[in-house]
Specification:
Glutathione S-transferase Yfyf (Class Pi), Chain A, domain 2; 203 residues; alpha+beta; Glutaredoxin; binds glutathione; 2 domains
Length: 203
Amino acid sequence: MTYTLFGFPPSGNTHKIRMLMNFLNIECDEVNINLKNGEHKQAAFLAINPRGQVPALQTSEGLIIDSHAILVYLASLHGKGKWWPESPLEQARLMEWISFSANEIHSGMASLRKHHRLGIPIAFEHALQVTENSMRLLDKHLSMNYWLVGTEFSLADLCCLPYLALAHEAQFDLTPFPNVQAWIARCKQVPGITLMPGMQAPA
Ligand SMILES: N[C@@H](CCC(=O)N[C@@H](CS)C(=O)NCC(=O)O)C(=O)O
């Protein structure tokens, strides 16, 4: 199966796909869509993805859009067992965090980073509030759990990691959330993990 990933190098959502592909040893071509010059809203890319967003993945079965949809597709197709469990309850546990990534992290930390790194206007106070609330929740969860779900690094950790490891680019101080900081450091030590530029910095 050949894959083509439409992405953008600074995009944490694109990076999630790269991380899973590398864990699964999947070969993939990448096409860069330059979000800075608006290529994602031009007709050529809108014909591929009408949502005008990256990432999008061209597969032999058709185009898949949205980082979380792509992760679930790849994990269930190539990583049954380790990356996508059989049990509906375990799948639901992963989905709890995939949803946290798509909602709280997307409209919180990722939004703050978009503002500070790319200069895009956002509802700043709202994004800050969402980030503070969600980091408080996450810190509490991680005070009782080594990984987000179960006993090893999973798709839940993978999808939440990039934007949280880039908190410094969002100009958000994680010092009041020591369990989140320790979890980020743990994730970065997982064998086979792929870090994007900026993720190496201490959280
Ligand atoms: N829910 C989508 C969000 C994708 C997203 O927001 N992508 C950003 C880049 S990281 C983008 O393409 N932004 C341009 C836009 O929304 O117009 C996902 O998880 O893939």
